[in-house]
Amino acid sequence: KRAKAPTGKLGFEDAKAYFEENCIKVHVPPGKDVDITPLAGFKVKGFAKRLVQYCEGKFEKPTPIQACCWPIAMQQSDVCGIAKTGSGKTMAFAMPYLSMSRRGVLTVFEQPTHMPRFVALAPTRELAMQIAEVCKDLTKTLQADGVDFPVQCIYGGVPKREQRQALESEGVDMLVATPGRL
């Protein structure tokens, strides 16, 4: 088992060094009051406890994209994060969505089950399938609490009819798609 990383946000000097060390640039539009301090660990205010336990059991610490995106997203602020493949972007965006939805923070956005509330676009079928698997792993973690977030993945190269039927019959909360099929 891995040692647990420290929790909470980094101090001002540590945050400054973290941004520099990881070549991170953060832009906050004028007039926006957003705390951009990165996290040192997985315990994010408002995160579902089971998601935190999942992360602590699998990873040593958040990746830079996660450490920077999570606190901003949990403030319900828009985030545009750019990082390399395999850097943890899916979890950077999916975990705040799942945690806020589970707590009812996003009830303003409630929609019928056949309409997605989380959409991730991927340039290739393979990447879309990988993203969907990460989303499914995260949602399985929450099923023990009786919470269900149906995940569907749609992409070209297979019949549209089958994918459409799956969306209609099984429902969808989190949709992962390639642009052409979307």
TrEMBL record:
Q: What class of enzyme is it?
A: hydrolase
Gene3D superfamilies under this entry?
Answer: P-loop containing nucleotide triphosphate hydrolases (3.40.50.300)
UniProt-recorded Gene Ontology molecular function terms: ATP binding; hydrolase activity; RNA binding; RNA helicase activity
Q: What is its EC number?
A: 3.6.4.13
Question: Which reaction is the catalytic activity of this chain?
Answer: ATP + H2O = ADP + phosphate + H(+)
Query: What residues does the Helicase ATP-binding domain cover?
Result: 70-182
Keyword flag ATP-binding: yes
| UniProt KW Nucleotide-binding keyword | yes
InterPro entries per the record? DEAD/DEAH_box_helicase_dom (IPR011545), DEAD/DEAH_RhlB (IPR044742), Helicase_ATP-bd (IPR014001), P-loop_NTPase (IPR027417)
Family per UniProt? Belongs to the DEAD box helicase family.
This molecule's function is given as: RNA helicase.
- The record's note on its domains: The Q motif is unique to and characteristic of the DEAD box family of RNA helicases and controls ATP binding and hydrolysis.
Q: Which named protein is this?
A: ATP-dependent RNA helicase
Whose protein is this, by species?
Strombidinopsis acuminata
